[in-house]
Amino acid sequence: MSVYDYLYYIILPTLSVSILIIFIRFLIGPKLSDRVVALDLLLTTGIGIIAVYSVTTNQPAFLDIAMILALIAFLGTVAFAYYLEKREKND
């Protein structure tokens, strides 16, 4: 079994199933903080899919895109955390 077979038959199905489970968690999350964590995890899993695609197609430009998406996801999570902190202080 080569690395490409491992990526196609094990990693991609695992990431696909995890995206479905995370999206369900995003929809039924009782609190806003649960939804923020689920959204961050969705973006992280998407970054994993982009990385696998980059390796299988041998196009390293997609890794740059994944890195930029990771930076945006991190900044978004920090912004949501700041918003939740301010909202709790006002209540």
TrEMBL record:
GO terms for cellular component: plasma membrane. One of its GO terms (molecular function) is sodium:proton antiporter activity. The keyword Membrane applies. Keywords: Antiport, Cell membrane, Ion transport, Membrane, Transmembrane, Transmembrane helix, Transport. It is found in: Cell membrane. It is a multi-pass membrane protein. The chain crosses the membrane at residues 6-24, 36-55, 61-84. InterPro entries: MrpF/PhaF-like. Belongs to the CPA3 antiporters (TC 2.A.63) subunit F family. PANTHER family: NA(+)/H(+) ANTIPORTER SUBUNIT F1 (PTHR34702), NA(+)_H(+) ANTIPORTER SUBUNIT F (PTHR34702:SF1). This is Multisubunit sodium/proton antiporter, MrpF subunit. It comes from Algoriphagus faecimaris.
